[in-house]
Every structure is written in C-alpha cells, then in structure tokens.
Amino acid sequence: MANKGSLRALASLVRGHRGAVAVAVSLSLVGTGVGLAEPLLASATVSAAAEHRPWGWPVAALVVFFVAEAVISALSQYMLDRTGENVVLDLRIRIVDRLLRLPIRRYEDHRLGDLLTRTSSDTTLLRNTLSSVMVQTVTGALFVVGGVIAMILLDPVMFIIVAVTVLAGVVPAVAATSRIRQATLLAQESLGGMAAELERALSAIRTVRVAGAEDRERDRIAEPARKAYRENIFAARRTAVIFPAITLALHGSMIVVLVIGALRVSTGSVSLADLVGFLLYVSFIVSPIANLAFGVVAMHKGLAALQRVQQITDLPTEITDQPGTAVLPIPLRSGAAAVEFRNVWFGYDPETPVLRGLSFTVPEHSHVALIGPSGAGKTTVLGLLARFFDANSGQILIDGRDITEMSPAECRSRIGLVEQSAPVLYGTLEENIRYGCPDATIDEVERVVALAGLQELIRRLPDGLHTPVGEHGNLLSGGERQRVAIARALLPRPQLLLLDEPTSQLDSANEALLIRTINHISTECTLLVAAHRASTIEAADARITLNQSAELASTPTP
C-alpha cells in the first residue's frame, strides 16, 4: 500500500480547492442519502401491497428519488471532475515554471522528451487519478458506509454473513493491486524514454534519412514502447481480477441471504419487506465496493505519476538573490560595461577545473577577442558572465561590482548573448527579434535589422517581418539564423555583448558585413567575442588568449 507521505502529497494537490471539493462532497452526501432511502421505499411498497394498503405514494416517492439521485450524482461528478482539471492545470503550470527556472546545468540531467512526458502524460494520468479517487472513492465509501448501517439495522445476522462472504473476495482482489504502482512507474518511465528517443531522431531527421537509419531508429524507439506495453498489460491483468472477484463474492452473499432469509421469513424472524430491502442494499453496494477497489488502483497509478512529477517540482530553481546582499533595482541599460576576472577557478566537475586562476580585464567600449584551442574554456567564460553557473572561486566583476552581488536577472539585464548555435524559436521573424524586448518600437526593430544585415532577407520573405520561420527556424539558412540571433541580442541595447563564434555559419560576404556591424556596435557597448576565425580575431581591438589547460591568460593585447 501507499505510505502516508505519498498520500499526504496526493492530498496536498487539492489543498487550494477545498471549497469546490466541499461542495462536491456535500452533494455526494445528499445523493448517497437519497440513494440509501430507495431500498426503504421499495420495502414500504412491498409492505403496502402485501397488506392491501395504498402503495401509490411510495412508488411516486421512489420515482422522485431516482430522478433526484441522478441529477445530484451528475452535479457532484461534474464538480469533482472540474476540480481535478483545475488541480492538474495548476500542477502543469508549476512544472512548466520550474522547468524554465532550473539551474542551467540541471538540464543536462534530463532528456527533453522525458521532461515533456512528465508535463503531459504523467499529469494526465494524475488528473484521471484525482477524478477517480475523488469521485469513485468518496461516493463509494459513502454508499458502503450507509449501506452497512442500513443492513445492520435491518438484520445484523444476515449482515455478518454478507460481510464475511464479501471480505473473502475483496481482500485478495485489493491485494492483487500491490504491484500496480511499480508497474505504472516503469511504464511511465518507458514512455518518457520513448519520447526522448523520438525527439532525438526527429531533431536530426535529415541525418537519419541520409544514413538510411529509419528502421534502426524505429526499432530503437519501439523498445521502450514495448516495455511500457508489457508493464501496462501486467497492471491490466491485476486490475481485471478486481471486479469479477467482488461481483462473485457479492452475488454469492446474495444467494446465501436468499436461502437463509427465506428460512428466517418462514419462521417469522424477519418480514418479507425487510428481506427485500436487505437484498436491495446488498445489490446497491456492489458497484460502490468495486469503485473503492478501482479507486485503490487509480491511487497506485496516480502515486506513480506523482512521483515522476515531484522529481521535477522538487528540483531547486536558479538562485535569484544572493543571501546577505542588498537587492538593487535593475538599472537602465545605458553606456558600456567594463569586465574583470580575478583569479577565477571553475569546473563543471569541481575535480576537473576548466578555468584555473583566470584573470583579465576588458575596458568599456572595447572589442576583445577571446581566443584559444577548443576546450580551453572560451564558451565557459561567456556562460560565467551570463551567470548560467557561478565560479568555484575568484571574482567576476562588471563595472567594478561582483556579479554574485547581483541577481541573475540584474546581471543579464546588462548583457546580450549570441550563442554559436544561434537558436531561433517557432514564430515569426519579428517575434524572434523582439523576444528579449517585446515592447520595442518598430523603429528600434528596423535599427537592429539594419545592424544585423537582415534587410535583404526581409525583402525576400513573403510577409516580411511577419513571416513564420518554422520549427527551430528551419525555414532560414544557418547564416540567417545567426543574424536573427544577433539582431535579437542587440535590440535591448546591452552594455556588454557576448558573441560565441558569431561568424561560424556566414559566407565571406556576410562575414565581412557582420564584422563591420560589430565594429560599429563597439561604439555603443563592450564586445567580448569567442573567436576561431582569423577575420573575427583581426577585427578586435585586443585579444585574450587561453591556453590548452586554461591556466593562463594574457591581458588584452593588440
């Protein structure tokens, strides 16, 4: 069975929706009361007919109660289902918010497809669980408790017979659910693996096609799908025994009640009307008991999904403020920034430093090329300045202020970054350019379009700036994506612009254009460029050279 901590976690999801749950449970209570009165009315009808008394009123009341129960049950189920949807909506938004705020290095611990599965598939399973647990378990429990009380009042002897018979079937059936949670967890993990493998193949679909690897990728993706299938079939087999076992036990108890009840009626120990009412209560609790058992199954599945969801929601977010430091307002972006590294040590694995005692200074309004062999730490330097991670020791200063005294938001408000991969998001060209500054005027957009050399592209596109660029910007060339990324970085007028191999995907003509643009930009802000190409290096005012082990760096030199 689930432990108390797991159940508390599941219950905590509805904490902010207590009002709606209270209304729904109240409706369930009323509906249960109405339903439990129906066998009594049926018994009254039988008594009236047997004693030749008028029986029209109990029949009419029975019809009214049937209709009332149906309406109340529908309202209750709607309220509970709606609450379940609201809970899962809140949870999905929490997951998305957490995923967008994780420390950068945390993304390396999870595959994209698996994260998407946790956000969609696992939360859908959790929604179904909440609906099942709240509807089936709450309603079923109320019906069973009410039915048990009524049967005890009608005939305690026959109730004991029913209880023993039913427990003989229900206990083994519920015990059969013990492995369902683990099977569901394995199935959901396999679905996450399948989504991750599919995302891997689709993101490199041209390579897959050229390599003729469609069949291999299909088989690779099918393996976790088959594992999920096997685990779900295992859970289905366990679930399949529940209803037949409970139904068989209850029907068996009804046969016993009929036989013993007939004998008790013949001896005058119980009336025929009471026997009819008792049998109706036995038949009434068949579905509620089954619902309780299915609620246990749903709870196991939901707890498995909740476990995967909590693995994300429990992750720490990026630190927004350094403890013990003043929270300063984000400054207006004006002027250029000076940068200084003082004896900075950093390693993605602390045991294997990438930067060893790195020190250099970049004056404001300068254009500095950061050069060195692959693996020397050029991209790492840019990542440290953007506070994607913090140095293990040493200081990094912008305008004389340690960046750890700034929140990441304040630090990044001073910086523009153009990554080597130049990511372009799904949407229009204008939406991509405005991404970091959505309120920019059209004049400001046109300014950076000109700076990045995008005028010709815009003239060629059917809808100009309003043209969709496709998934990951796949309707643009590599060079066009890079220029879009540069325009996006320039729009907020950063004090410090970081460029990681900005000309790596440009032809010679566009490279020359971009270098002229970069030279012009340095009049507005400081430029730090990680560079390999000779033309990019030669365009700089000064160079910082990292050696192979990143132990030494020269100060900026012409």
UniProtKB/TrEMBL annotation:
Question: What GO molecular function annotation could you give as one example from this UniProt entry?
Answer: ATP hydrolysis activity
What keywords tag this UniProt record? ATP-binding, Membrane, Nucleotide-binding, Transmembrane, Transmembrane helix
Give residue ranges for domain ABC transmembrane type-1: 22-301
Tell me where the transmembrane regions lie. 58-80, 133-152, 158-176, 240-263, 275-298
Its placement in the membrane is given as: Multi-pass membrane protein
Where does the UniProt annotation locate this protein? Answer: Cell membrane
Q: Which GO terms describe its cellular component?
A: plasma membrane
- Asked whether the keyword Glycosyltransferase is assigned, the reply is no
| Chief location bin | membrane
Domain ABC transporter intervals:
339-557
Q: Which InterPro entries match?
A: AAA+_ATPase, ABC1_TM_dom, ABC1_TM_sf, ABC_transporter-like_ATP-bd, ABC_transporter-like_CS, P-loop_NTPase, Type_1_exporter
What is the protein's name according to its record? ABC transporter ATP-binding protein
